[in-house]
Each structure stands twice: as C-alpha cells, then as structure tokens.
Write a structure and sequence with these properties.
Shape: elongated
Radius of gyration: 28 Å
Strand content: under 5%
CATH superfamily of the domain at 317-441: Tetratricopeptide repeat domain
CATH architecture of the domain at 317-441: Alpha Horseshoe
CATH topology of the domain at 317-441: Serine Threonine Protein Phosphatase 5, Tetratricopeptide repeat
C-alpha cells in the first residue's frame, strides 16, 4: 500500500474511497451508520466504531484493517487471524459450534489457495475440537491426515497437543496399541531432534506409560517411567515431576497397590497446588478419591471429590465429569444410599457415551455395586458381567478381578454356588489371590 494511504486519517481515507467508487454518504449509510455519522467521520469529528468500520469496509470493498489504518493484510495473514480467533474461542469453552464452522471455512479457503500451513493448523484445531465434544473417531481421521499427510505433521516437540490428543483418542476407541506405537515414535523423534530437552522427552515417556498400562503392559510401562525418572535433576521443572508422579500413581492404582499410589498422587498434588493448572489438580483429586474409595476411606474420598468438583468448574470435559460421577456413585454406595449410587452411575454412563471404554467399565462397576445394594440381583449380575468384560478388554485386570470377586460373592449370597465358582475362577485368572478372596467373601 502507498505511503500516502498510510499517512491519511481514517476520515480522509473514507472520503477518498467513497468518491473513487462513486458513492454518496447516503449510499454508504445503513442501520446504525447514518449518513450524518459518516459526514462527521469524514470531517474528523468522530472516530468510527468497530461495527461501523466493518459495515463501511464491506460496502467499499476493502478490509476493515485497511479502512482504519491504510495497511492491508495478506489473505494468509487474514486466515491466521481467523484461526487464532477460533482457537481462542475453543480454549474458552465456546460450546455453540461456531468455532468449528469458522475453522472449516478457513480450511476450505486454505486448500483452495494452496496454503498448506493454514490448512494444517485448521485441521489440528478441528481435531482438538472434535475431542472436546467426545467425537474421537472424527478426531482420529482429521489428526491422522495431519500426521501422515503429504506435508508431514509438525515435529512432536513443537505440537505435543496434536500427538497426545491423537494418542488419547486411540485409547478412547479401544486401540491402545496404536497409541503405544505413536508415542514410541514421538519419543524416539524428540530424543533425536531435541536431545537436551528432557521435559518434552519425559512428557512423551509419560503418555507412553499411560498407553502401555491401558494396553495391559504394566511391566513395560513401569520400565518407561523408571527410565524417565533417571533423567530428573535439580533443574527439572515441577510440572515435569508432576507428570512422572502422576504416571507412577496411576500405574500403582491399576496394579492394586493403593498405598504406594496415594503416596505418588499426594506428591503430584503438592506440586500442582503451587501452579495455576487447576484442571490437572482437579484430576489428581479425582484419582486420589478413586484409590481411597477402593480402600473404603469414605471421608477422605468425600473431601477429594468435593475439591475436584469445585476445580472442574461449570463446564467440565465429558471424561472428567464421568469420573466425578463414578466417584460420587461409589461414595453414595459406601454411605448406604443405594438409590443415589445407581442414579449417579447411570449419569456417568450417559456422560461418557460410546467412548472411554475403560471408564465405562468403572461406571458399570459402580452401577453393579449400587444395584447389589438395592438387592436387585438380576440387574447387578448383568452389570457385573458387563463391567468385568469392559475392564478386561481395556487392560484393567486388577479392577476386573475385584468386580469378578464381588460378582461371585453376590451369587453365593443368592444360593447360586455353581455359577459363583466359575466366576471366582475368573477372578483368580485376573490376578485376585486366595487371601483377598477369603477376606472379602
């Protein structure tokens, strides 16, 4: 744009453009932007509002940026601005669906213009938005197009949100093995590309350990975490330590080592309390409550569930809300309120929908406990069967064994000893030992 146009005031520029295009002030006027208002802008007596700039620029066939400043922006810059605006709306929890519409429009424009950078960024944002709404299959399709596309995805150390979200969606769809392969590849790449960045390496090691534990490969998961722990030093930031404590706490919980799990979770909570990451702190409280409920520590679990619920806020993610409802259901059952336990478990299942199979298993397990407490043996037996199948499928053998043991005990109480014996054998196969079985029978 010329130096002259940059030196013009907005009023002079408006007048020049209007005359060049053969418009009168009345021609440019519209509801909220009267010809008298336009006259005062041109005279320098008024500064146009954002709304007025948009309306006037549309009629003059220029951008609002050019009308206001004399500087125009390239199409690619315009797309980048709209991308940033839609991404911000998503981060702020915009639930209207408008951000996705904007992103898809930018994607179409970018593809038509051959702007691969903006197209890639739009695809990533659309994939992340799909996960927010629980549409994991759609997210996988979109994010895989970025990771495996012709332009190849960005390096994993530059866009960890892309790769971690894709891996988590694989797990939610019951494909933990694909998540393992993805995170193994990411970990190898960051070790080669940024060997000095221990934080990003530990981040991928943590997610790899999650995926391995979801696949039932607990020994390999522990090995990955131990190797990551060996890279810690005095300069390691607190949040990186949180990731490792979290991973160790989660792994210990999955293997039924409740005391050890709580030790690690408490360390993570202590570090998170001095950060601004309230979401991770809320999740840590929910994880701690889950371990405490297994130990039947109702008061401790109640406190942690309340803290977690408060930190999750008014618009929690579906998985977080589902885990909260599962914990609240287990607590209601411990408190002797079977009806409330059943209601909360069913609410958890409704929130989780068709995804997060391992969490669905936990929700059905909570439902089984509530139905058993209501003395609904038929409903409880069916729920226990579904819970054991789901948790076994997703590598949650300790939890599946616990549910199978409760199922066998329920059958025993109702005089169905032959059926109970078969289920008890299944509990043993899942890792329940004879001491535990005799203590809970």
């Amino acid at each position: 744009m010329s130096e002259e146009s940059n030196q013009e005031g907005v009023g002079a520029r408006l007048k020049r453009l209007r005359i060049e295009r053969g418009f009168s002030q009345r021609d440019l006027s519209s509801p909220g932007v009267s010809y008298a208002y336009i006259s005062r802008i041109e005279a320098g007596a008024r500064t146009p509002s954002v709304k007025a700039l948009r309306k006037l620029s549309q009629k003059l066939g220029v951008s609002a940026e050019f009308l206001e400043t004399g500087r125009d922006i390239r199409d690619v810059d315009d797309r980048e601005l709209r991308l940033a605006d839609a991404e911000l709306e998503l981060r702020l929890g915009e639930a209207s669906g408008e951000p996705e519409k904007k992103l898809k429009k930018v994607l179409d424009e970018s593809l038509a213009a051959g702007d691969t950078g903006s197209a890639q960024r739009a695809r990533i944002a659309i994939g992340l938005a799909a996960v927010q709404r629980g549409r994991h299959l759609e997210a996988v399709e979109g994010l895989e197009a970025v990771v495996g596309g012709e332009a190849q995805g960005p390096p994993p150390h530059l866009r960890p949100d892309l790769y971690t979200t894709l891996g988590q969606s694989y797990v939610a769809l019951g494909a933990a093995d694909r998540a393992v392969a993805l995170f193994e590849r990411c970990l190898t790449q960051v070790q080669e590309l940024v060997p000095e960045d221990s934080a990003v390496q530990i981040r991928y090691a943590t997610f790899l350990s999650y995926a391995l534990s979801d696949a039932g490969e607990y020994e390999r998961a522990a090995e990955v975490v131990r190797e990551a722990l060996s890279r810690l030093d005095d300069k390691t930031d607190p949040y990186t330590r949180v990731r490792l404590y979290w991973s160790l706490g989660r792994l210990s919980a999955l293997e039924g080592r409740s005391s050890e799990s709580l030790d690690y979770i408490r360390k993570a909570i202590a570090l998170l309390q001095v950060t601004d990451d309230t979401l991770m702190l809320a999740r840590a409280y929910l994880l701690a409550a889950g371990v405490e409920l297994r130990e039947r520590k109702a008061d401790d679990a109640r406190e942690h569930l309340a803290l977690g619920e408060r930190l999750l806020g008014l618009k929690p993610e579906r998985l977080d809300l589902g885990m909260l409802r599962i914990g609240q259901s287990r607590l209601a059952e411990l408190d002797g309120d079977a009806t409330r336990a059943v209601e909360l478990a069913r609410d958890a299942l409704a929130v989780l929908g068709d995804f997060h199979g391992d969490s669905q298993g936990a929700a059905v397990h909570a439902l089984a406990r509530g139905l058993a407490a209501q003395d609904d043996a038929t409903g409880a037996v069916d729920a226990y069967r579904r819970a054991v199948d789901l948790m076994s499928l997703h590598g949650r053998n300790t939890d599946a064994g616990e549910a199978a043991l409760e199922w066998a005990n329920l059958l025993q109480r109702h005089g169905r000893s032959d059926e109970a014996e078969a289920i008890l054998r299944r509990a043993y196969d899942l890792g329940v030992d004879a001491e535990t079985a005799s203590r809970t029978s």
